[in-house]
Amino acid sequence: MDWENFLENIGVWYNTFVEWYLAQPLYGQVLAIIGLVALLALTVTLLYYIIKGIAYLIYYIIKGIFYLLKYIGYGIYKLFEGFYLLVSGKSKSQTQNNNQYNIQNNSTKEPRIFLEYCSECGKKFTNKMKYHLESTEIVFCVNCGTRLRIDQAIQPLTVSH
């Protein structure tokens, strides 16, 4: 490409536009500027939405490929799990029950036995009082207003011989 010829060609078109623009009356010049600004705003908006659409397209293609590969891997895992269960002779329910049993054994806490009666007035605790005592470890008796802490309300476990 000949750059000198290209620049001369641009100069000719620019001079032609300037002559046309200056030949217009004042309101024509103002309307031409408003038209150019509107055309520029339309172009920028159009470019923004095209770029945004391309970005979304790329994002969802990558996301789809990720999920596709993820579930293909999950399917292969389940296939090998089935082969393992077939070869070992175990059933899936046996392995699940063993896992649940191990989880239950590991998460057991020492049982706490709460008193059911207020140590001051002797009235029975309401269900709300019991729940509140378990959750916040402090409760007030609804009958006499005595403040009871959890260490006062736990019944000591005595072993009888």
How many separate helices?
Answer: 5
Sheet with most strands: strand arrangement: 1-2
**Percent of sequence in beta strands:** under 5%
Rg on CA atoms, Å: 41 Å
Largest sheet: 2 strands, antiparallel
**Spatial shape:** elongated
Distance between the termini: 109 Å
Structural class: mainly alpha
List segments where confidence is low: pLDDT < 50 over at least 5 consecutive residues. none
β-strand number: 2
| SSE string, helices as H and strands as E | HHHHEEH
How helix-rich are the residues, as a percent range?
Answer: over 70%
Mean pLDDT: 82
What is the fold's blueprint, element by element?
Layout: H1 3-23, H2 26-88, H3 92-106, H4 127-136, E1 138-140, E2 147-149, H5 150-153
Describe this structure in words.
The protein is mainly alpha-helical. 70% of the residues lie in helices and 4% in strands. The protein has five helices and two strands. The chain has helices at 3-23, 26-88, 92-106, 127-136, 150-153, and strands at residues 138-140, 147-149. It has a two-stranded antiparallel ribbon. A hairpin with a 6-residue loop joins strand 1 (138-140) and strand 2. The longest helix is centred in the middle third of the chain and has 63 residues, at 26-88. 4% of the residues are buried.
